[in-house]
Design brief:
The structure is a homodimer of 190-residue chains. By secondary structure, chain A is mainly alpha-helical. In chain A, 76% of the residues lie in helices and 0% in strands. Chain A contains 10 helices and no strands. The longest helix of chain A has 23 residues. The first copy, chain A, is globular. At the A-B interface, helix 1, helix 6, helix 7, helix 8 and helix 9 of A face helix 1, helix 6, helix 7, helix 8 and helix 9 of B. Chain A binds a DNA duplex (30 and 30 nucleotides) through helix 3.
Chain lengths: 190, 190
DNA sequence: TTGGACGTCAACTAGATAGTTGGTTTACAA
DNA sequence: TTGTAAACCAACTATCTAGTTGACGTCCAA
């Protein structure tokens, strides 16, 4: 029934190698041969397991987002701490941030892509948690606040070069940046 | 002395076609043949004018940034209005935002790239303007504030899909988003 | 023990792509 | 008018790349 040789390990090795490759070069820049070589696996296995390069990219993104969700607690009653935690997480996982950017650039349309229901659900839960923590009903305003908070946490990790241009060597002082961010959010949400 | 045929027009046509192509597909995804075809010019002209694909990309970025600088006044005494103006500008120029993202993804190193002096200068001027408007001396804190404000204005344009995921159709209500943003900044900078 | 289904891989292919080349046209100076 | 330097372009090439194929190895059920 399961005449497998090592499918789980092969698949996992491919996913990890693909995450590095896609984070570094994006979908268009990524090379299937490099991914297979890094994984120590034959190229054909990519097609056997995932179908094609794009589907492999989707699998990588979904895995990375699952990691994020499982490791960062909901905003709850302390949105300031939430931003701080998110900021740290993104700084420690630049690959995830880069994947999100490549993905954002991959689509130009106005419409929401199919298969995004899981993410809509995840975000709705965060918004609900944020609203509950603030003793409000979930509303459009809460959703916008969540969007803004996400941006505050994500932006420094998205544009490290700009950080270096504006902040110089000061860009390495992550604690100072996080403190400024938390002060900013504290005041704004007062 | 100037046996030109139409070099300026050719060059401009190439730059415009390249901006569209690069904004849509990035450096790796962009096709030199498509750029030439869109510009109605022979492919070889790209190499004559710009050297290669990467240098053409640099030229496109620089032109777009010059446009931005010339059209958006310094933050000065009204940083809240500055964020609002920036937000609108980015929303009306999605190509610029995408170019900035592709560019940010093109470099992984910690070091500032050579040839960025002009941008450092531009940002320093903005920081100085912001500090002066608030009646302070330019400081690390001012620079961080500028960085954060830039992020607030840029983020919604960078991740429109995420906006749609979090906000649903509400994402189209740009006025509401800008109002929330200005309220946010007003409270934070109080 | 054995048959077959599935995992693995080396080698292959068809098509695309950045960059080049050699010749032609254009505009101006003398 | 004519020499010439630069703009222009059609056609070419060497290389690269995503995806395929067919042969072989591995595991398990019967």
């Amino acid at each position: 029934m399961s005449p497998k040789v090592s499918t789980a390990a092969t698949r996992a090795a491919l996913l990890e190698a693909a995450r590095e490759e896609f984070a570094a070069y994006g979908v268009a820049g990524a090379r299937v041969d490099r991914i297979a070589e890094r994984a120590g696996v034959n190229k054909e296995r990519i097609y056997g397991h995932f179908g094609n390069k794009e589907k492999l990219f989707d699998a990588v993104i979904n895995e990375a987002l699952d990691d994020l969700t499982s490791q960062i607690a909901l905003p709850g009653a302390d949105p300031v701490d939430y931003v701080a935690r998110l900021t740290d997480y993104y700084r420690r996982h630049p690959d995830l941030v880069r994947l999100l950017m490549w993905e954002a650039l991959n689509y130009r349309g106005q419409e929401l892509l199919p298969g995004q229901e899981a993410r809509v659900e995840r975000c709705a839960r965060k918004a609900a948690s944020l609203a509950e923590g603030r003793g409000e009903e979930p509303s459009k305003a809460t959703a916008r606040t969540l969007f803004t908070l996400t941006g505050l946490a994500l932006f420094p990790a998205m544009m490290p070069q700009l950080g270096r241009i504006i902040l110089g060597d000061e860009a390495d002082d992550h604690d100072a940046l996080r403190d400024q961010l938390t002060a900013f959010v504290t005041a704004a949400l007062k």
